[in-house]
Design goal:
This protein is α+β, with helices and mostly antiparallel strands. The chain is built from six helices and 14 strands.
């Protein structure tokens, strides 16, 4: 154990000359804790990305829907998505020129999936300090209110760690943000396949059961600057970072893997659900 109390305060982004985002985008991120949507993969390219994610899920079997966690340093295809300049350019406008991807997860809610992801703050589960991670959510399928798109509670990213309470059996997490209904009106993170959103690591978010006849699949990618450090040596064993751009600082990073067969490797199992 290195530190017991991570710094979970939000640091507003100051970037007078963003490369891809506008000043309005950055103001939105600072005020609400998220910004979206951004077109990344056109339909022709997205068909290949979806086929790739579908193959990984099929190969992993019953664990595929929520079990493809943190393979970004173990599978070439996920490495390539995580380091894609079209994504990293947007992230860099929020966290600076040095960009590390330390986690990823495929999150797929099947049609009729009854489980909800309760309101929660990601960074409160992580052993990182300070709280500077930006999460990218890449829509593999179209995501909307009907098929349980992720929802945000705007402006909850700069409140520090909020009180939690236990969740019921129908919840993916056993703990969630308490009294979330009093925190504001939720925003539905509707995205077309191939689009992304970006949100701050302390923003309260979650998702409802998928009562539709359509799957809702997304890929989350977690990015931070090298000033962020791991506070728990045991938790660190589940982190395999990738340097997307610039300098990695004290982080240990991994080169592009040659393997792209999920059956030939395993995950270090840092988990996150949305």
């Amino acid at each position: 154990m290195l530190d017991s109390k991570p710094d979970l305060r939000f640091k507003p982004v100051t970037n007078p000359r963003p490369a891809r985002l506008t000043s309005e985008d950055i103001a939105q991120y600072n005020a609400a804790g998220y910004v979206q949507p951004f077109d990344i993969f056109p339909a022709s390219e997205m068909a290949g990305v979806r086929a790739y994610i579908d193959r990984l899920m099929t190969d992993l079997g019953t664990e595929g829907a929520y079990g493809i966690n943190c393979y970004q340093a173990r599978l070439a295809g996920l490495y390539d998505i995580a380091t894609d300049a079209r994504i990293v350019d947007l992230v860099a406008d929020l966290i600076g020129p040095d960009v590390i991807c330390w986690a990823s997860a495929v999150l797929s809610k099947a049609a009729g999936d009854p489980k909800r992801v309760p309101w929660h703050q990601d960074a409160s589960f992580w052993s990182l300090t300070p709280a500077r991670t930006v999460t990218v959510w890449l829509a593999i399928d179209d995501a909307d209110a009907e098929n349980a798109a992720m929802r945000f509670i705007p402006g909850t990213h700069d409140k520090g760690a909020l009180p939690t309470s236990e969740r019921g059996a129908g919840s993916v997490f056993h703990m969630g943000t308490a009294n979330a209904a009093a925190l504001g009106r939720p925003f539905t993170n509707s995205l077309k396949a191939g689009q992304i959103s970006l949100h701050a690591d302390m923003l309260v978010h979650g998702s409802l059961p998928n009562s539709s006849d359509r799957r809702r699949c997304g890929l989350t990618l977690r990015y931070c600057p090298p000033e962020v450090r791991i506070t728990d040596t045991a938790w660190a064993t589940g982190v395999e970072a990738v340097l997307c751009r610039g300098n990695a600082g004290a982080w240990v990073t991994h080169p592009r893997p040659t393997n792209d067969d999920i059956k030939l490797t395993t995950s270090p199992h840092v988990v996150g659900n949305n």
